[in-house]
Every structure is written in structure tokens, then in C-alpha cells.
Amino acid sequence: MSALVCRLCGESLLRTFVDLGMSPPCETYPTADQLESGETFYPLHVRICERCLLVQLPAYIPAEDIFADDYAYFSSYSDSWVAHAAAFVDTMVDRLHLDENSYVVEVASNDGYLLQAVVRRGIRCLGIEPAANVAEAALAKGIPTEVSFLSERRGKELADRYGPADLVVGNNVFAHVPDVLDFARGLRALVADDGVVSLEFPHLLRLVEGRQYDTIYHEHYSYFSLLTATRALSAADLVVVDVEELPSHGGSLRVFAKPSASAAGASEAVGKVLGDEAAAGLHTVEGHDGFATSVLKVRTDLVNLLSQAAMDGLKVAGYGAPGKGNTLLNHCAIRPDLLPYTVDRSLYKQGRFLPGTHIPIHAPDHLLEDRPDLIVILPWNLKKEIVNQLSEARTWGARFVVPIPELTIL
């Protein structure tokens, strides 16, 4: 790699935020015939810029290699996330008075989980999704989709072809782009001069408070506070005018931005969130210290629990095969001796293995056959949804383990 410099301001990156060692790409799920082949591990060494305070992971893996034709994440497998997206569409239709004459664009539109609600409203829309296999699922639903990464040039091309958008949506994509400035300029190119850009991304404040270090993986290049997100958007002539705090993904922000020419003053909510960040120390370099130490307790507690369960002869299983779970399991060096298998609703992942740890992935019905004593919920942000889905497990006395923010047994 070349010298490490901040992707937002160009300053040299010299200060560590947290170093999680080496891990394979979190969405590469090997098949049985690939288990005897080698896997490439890359650093998970996160830095903080001492000038602009952006917390960031260097682009150890190009985005083109991560979001390839066999990308494994399909948003629609989470019922709560689909409901979250539908509720957002309802809110924005009312807030922006969207109708059949309006135009909505979603960047990183995945399998159409959100735009399907726009289509049902009879509103013209377009999805932009870099993973071709995921985009095919959206196209099959009748959702117009361009297979592409967003850049300033691409944004201008699509705006020339389809027109400027009244609303541009980017849910859980802002952190996924290595060139955050070019991406932000692409958002500006897509949106009308009086339009709105809505971005959702995990909030660095909640990551730190909740020790959510498993949300650090190679496709998450940046970890935004409202302060650093505002700085990135302002470089593209987008002004943050409002923000909402959301419970999704352990605590996220939904930021609303407008082109500077049409942006009014910021809402009270913007000032409130910035104040909370400052109070937590996130507006200084030194305020980020201590996170690296706090994650060690998460690892110690989980490894101790699973080791004791193995010695006691308890049956243990996992639920879910999310990217965040792979960061956690690789950092904890948990292998099939401590977690014999996990289950996942994704048909793509079933029959494959977790990267690095090689823990097998089964269909959820396998839990009913095996009747484990402990079920480790790897997508802990969906624990309520998962516990409800697995209510039958209570009949044989199964308990649920949630490892983050602290080890909890339900």
C-alpha cells in the first residue's frame, strides 16, 4: 500500500483507533470444496485522522473486489429492515409531497428492499447497485436498476439520462465507499437543486458507547460521527439540515442534506447530536482513546462462556451469518470446537462456511432438529426479531446469548 492518508482531508494517518488483527473479507463464504484452499487475510487496523477526526479503515481491499458478482448480502432477508424501509418511504412521501410526478433514486439499492415500496406508490424510481447478482433480484421485482458504483461522473451521466431526483436515498452505503468525496459529489449530481439527500449510517458515538467493534470490517471504510459526515457532505455542496437518531444497527443516524442554494438553517436535532458527540469527547482526538481496551472484555467474556459450555457438554449453535459476526468470531479465534455451526435464512449462505473460522452454515430448521442449549445471536442488532422467530426454542429450554454490548443471556 502507498502511504496512508485521510480519505477526507489528505492528512497522514498516524494514530490508531483500534487494531483487530487480521481477518478475511467478511462476505466471502467458502464452499466445501474451497476449505482446503488458502484464504487471504487483511488487516483490520482502524485509524483516526488527527486533523478532521474521521475514523477510517484504509482500503486494504478495493470496493470492486468486495461488491462483486457473488456478493452475499440481500437486505430482504431481514423482515424488520424491510419494514423499516417501508416506513421511511411512507414518511418521505408525506414530508416531501412525493407523487406520480416525482422521482426517487436509491444508491446501493441492493435487492429492491426499499424501492419496492416506492414502486407500489406509483412513483418513478431508479436503483444504483454495484453487485450484479443482487441487482438481478431487484430487476426481477420490476425495479429499474443500474449496475454501477456511484461517482461524480456516473451521477452526472444518470442525471442527464433520467433527470434530477427529488429524493436521493443512501442507506448503509456512506461507510462503504473508499472515495467518500467522489461519492458525495455523485450524490450532489443526482439530486435536484431543491431536492433532498437522505443518508443512514451507523453512528460512531453508538459504536463507541456500545463496544460495537464487530461492525468494523473491510467493506466499512469510514466510521462517521455527525461532525465528520457533515464535513464530507459540505465538500460536495450538500448542507446537513436535519438528523434523526435511529435504533437500527445498534444506533444509526439518518441525515438529511440539501444543496447549499436551497438549504435553510439546521434543525435543533443537528445541534443536539453534535452536542452529544462533543460531550462524549468525539470532537477531539483524545476523546477516541480507550475504545481498543474496551473491546477486550467482549472477547474475553464470549470465549470464556463458550469454553465453559464445551466443557459442560452443552450444545451450542449460532444464529445468523452476518458480516459483523465474522469480525467477532475471527477476532475471538472461535472455531467449530466452540461454535459447531450457525444457521441463516439466506439460501445463498446455506451449505457454505463462515470465512476464516470455517463454521458451517445450515438452514434455520437445523435448530429444530439439533435442539441446542445455547444459541448465539450474531446479528445482535436484530435480537428481538430473532428471539420472536425462534420462540419454539423456548420449549426445549434453549437460552439466547447476545455478545454485544456486553454478554447477555436471554
What is the CATH T-level topology of the largest domain?
A: Rossmann fold
CATH C-level name of the largest domain: Alpha Beta
CATH architecture descriptor text of the largest domain: 3-Layer(aba) Sandwich
Mean pLDDT: 94
Give the end-to-end Cα distance, rounded to a whole number of Å. Answer: 44 Å
Describe the structure.
The chain is globular, with a radius of gyration of 21 Å. Strand 15 (374-377), helix 13 and strand 16 form a beta-alpha-beta unit. It folds into two domains: 75-288, Vaccinia Virus protein VP39 (Rossmann fold), CATH 3.40.50.150; 297-409, Rossmann fold, CATH 3.40.50.720. A seven-stranded mixed beta sheet has the order 6-5-4-7-8-11-10, with helices on both faces. 32% of the residues lie in helices and 21% in strands. It has 410 residues and is an alpha/beta fold. The mean pLDDT is 94.
List key phrases describing it:
410 residues; 7-stranded mixed beta sheet; 13 helices; 6-stranded mixed beta sheet; Rossmann fold; alpha/beta; 32% helix; 17 strands; globular
Offer a concise description of the structure.
The protein has 410 residues and is an alpha/beta fold. The protein has helices at residues 63-66, 79-96, 115-120, 132-140, 152-162, 180-190, 204-209, 226-234, 268-279, 291-311, 323-332, 365-370, 383-389, and strands at residues 15-23, 42-48, 55-56, 103-107, 124-129, 145-147, 165-171, 191-202, 222-223, 238-246, 252-259, 316-319, 342-343, 361-362, 374-377, 399-402, 408-409.
Secondary structure: elements and pairs:
Elements: E1 15-23, E2 42-48, E3 55-56, H1 63-66, H2 79-96, E4 103-107, H3 115-120, E5 124-129, H4 132-140, E6 145-147, H5 152-162, E7 165-171, H6 180-190, E8 191-202, H7 204-209, E9 222-223, H8 226-234, E10 238-246, E11 252-259, H9 268-279, H10 291-311, E12 316-319, H11 323-332, E13 342-343, E14 361-362, H12 365-370, E15 374-377, H13 383-389, E16 399-402, E17 408-409
